[in-house]
Structures are given as C-alpha cells and as structure tokens.
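Researcher: Next sequence.
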Amino acid sequence: GDATASHYAKSLEIIADDTNCDGFLVILTPQAMTAPSECAEALKKYKSIPDKPVLASWMGGPDVAEGARVLRECGIPCYSYPDMACRTFNYMHEYKANLQSNYERINLQVNMGELSTGRAEVAAMIARIRGSGRSLLTEAESKQLLRAYGIPV
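Model: Next structure:
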C-alpha cells in the first residue's frame, strides 16, 4: 500500500531486461498514499519496451480515472480490471501465433531430373484432357499433376 510512482517505474526498469518476461501488466489499486496520476506519469517512458507489451489495470473507478487517461493517451492500454488485461495478453498471443502460422514454409526437396519427367507427363495428360473436350481436371488428375511436380498430396 505504500508504493510510490518511483517504485512503479523502478519495478518496470528492473524487469524490462528480464528475458523470462514477455510482457508486463502493471496493476494499481488506490491506497491512502497512492497517487494514481503520478504513477501513470512515471510509467509513460516504458510504453515502448522492445517486443514486450505493457498493459495496465488501474482499479478504483473515478479515483484513478485521471491516471488511466494519462496511460491511454501515451499508448499504454489501461483496463479497469486485471482479468480484462490478461484476456488481451491471450488475444495478442493467439494473434502472433496465427501470423506465424501464415508464414510457415514447407521445405520441398525437388529433384530437377524428376521435374523434367513430370513436365512431359503433365503435358501428355493435359493434351489428352483437352482432346476429350474437357477444361477441368478430376480430383485424381489434379493429384496426379501435383505429384508430377513433386508437391505432396
């Protein structure tokens, strides 16, 4: 209950370099000695810790409203309750995982000699299909085409 603005700032300064921390949730509950606005002002310089989001939960409604406003204006998301901030961390994690999955690469081992053989096979298959008057491949033909170019099916 006796944490000052400098205590809040020093805490973030110390843990900002900790490799075991992926982000920070700063929680303030107003006590008699707490100055919510001063604490918020002291945290402004930590809004951009590289690769580590800083979220805040300033609990106390009207008593902390000015401090919450200071945080939001400087770009630190501020929530009324910690569970809302935790949910945001979870959404951020899921979003990052989704982005990373979009960029996964499949390592295909391609033998150029087989591709040459595959091209001839595909050319013959397409000529046969066109000759029959069709413009669409069946599922089996599509898979055969992919396999001919070394694409796993």
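Model: The chain has six helices and three strands. The first helix runs from residue 5 to 15.
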